[in-house]
């Protein structure tokens, strides 16, 4: 089965020495990464449903990272401890299309978080990761693949929030209708989706006191736009709860990503070329 093959390849290989760093840049000493693929998003106008209260809140940001390469094989690097700290996807950009598995995101290994790209397509592929300073009631990571029923992540509680950690594909994520996401029905949290070919995603949950809103943005084709998510009075974090669309372009800027705009104090989502992104914010 492709699920076992990919998991075995990933976890037996990790951690590897650094093959390629951020499309030509080096990891920065302040806990973030940058490189030639980094761009600034244009400041958007605020949607009516993006306004939040301005009271202070308590979630601590635990580092913002990105990793991109066209090198084949597993390339990964440690981005810090998994103790009292949880990391999630905030972006996938580039090419997931190929005849064998490609994947990107973040995973735990030997007490740390590792950001990774794993592919054999020789195409540009990039992932963006946001860490938050909590591991309270963190659930085990769950994987879902095309053709499976939605997977249970855990019961709904007043504080539980769930986000993606990885996406994987071997033919999936090549059509506009393809997607994978987490959601809750008021009783339980689930990971699932709809893919026309092989692929899937992984997710986990952690307790965060407050929900700061959720959004779905879809880009036209062709086209790229940036739109506001939550306003940040201090301590708000936003991550991906789902992605969808055709990820078959070898371009580090073509995809779905969430970034923070310090000039406007809004979290923003940028979406390109028929792709869609589900983003949720916590505080």
UniProtKB/TrEMBL annotation:
Please indicate if the UniProt record lists Signal as a keyword.
yes
User: Per UniProt, which keywords does this protein have?
Assistant: Signal
Signal sequence coordinates: 1-20
Q: What is this protein called?
A: Uncharacterized protein
What species is this protein from? Corallococcus interemptor
């Amino acid at each position: 089965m492709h699920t076992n093959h990919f998991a075995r390849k990933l976890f037996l290989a990790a951690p590897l020495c650094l093959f390629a760093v951020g499309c030509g840049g080096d990891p920065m000493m302040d806990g973030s990464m940058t490189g030639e693929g980094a761009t600034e998003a244009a400041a958007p106008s605020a949607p009516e449903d993006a306004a939040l209260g301005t009271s202070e809140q308590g979630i601590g940001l635990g580092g913002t990272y990105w990793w991109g390469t066209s090198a084949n094989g597993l390339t990964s690097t440690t981005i810090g401890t998994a103790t009292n700290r949880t990391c999630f996807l905030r972006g996938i950009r580039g090419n997931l299309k190929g005849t064998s598995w490609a994947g990107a995101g973040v995973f735990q290994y030997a007490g740390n978080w590792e950001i990774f790209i794993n592919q054999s397509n020789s195409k540009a592929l990039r992932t963006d990761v946001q860490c938050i300073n909590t591991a309270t009631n963190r659930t085990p990571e769950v994987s879902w693949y095309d053709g499976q029923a939605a997977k249970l992540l855990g019961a709904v509680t007043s504080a539980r929030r769930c986000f993606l950690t990885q996406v994987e594909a071997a033919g999936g994520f090549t059509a506009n209708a393809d997607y994978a996401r987490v959601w809750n029905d008021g009783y339980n949290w689930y990971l699932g989706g709809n893919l026309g070919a092989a692929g899937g995603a992984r997710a986990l949950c952690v307790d965060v006191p407050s929900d700061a809103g959720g959004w779905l943005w879809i880009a036209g084709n062709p086209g790229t736009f940036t739109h506001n998510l939550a306003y940040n009075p201090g301590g708000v974090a936003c991550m991906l709860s789902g992605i969808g669309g055709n990820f078959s372009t070898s371009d580090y800027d073509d995809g779905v990503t969430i970034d923070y705009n310090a000039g406007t104090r809004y979290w923003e989502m940028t979406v390109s070329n028929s792709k869609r992104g589900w983003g949720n914010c916590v505080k």
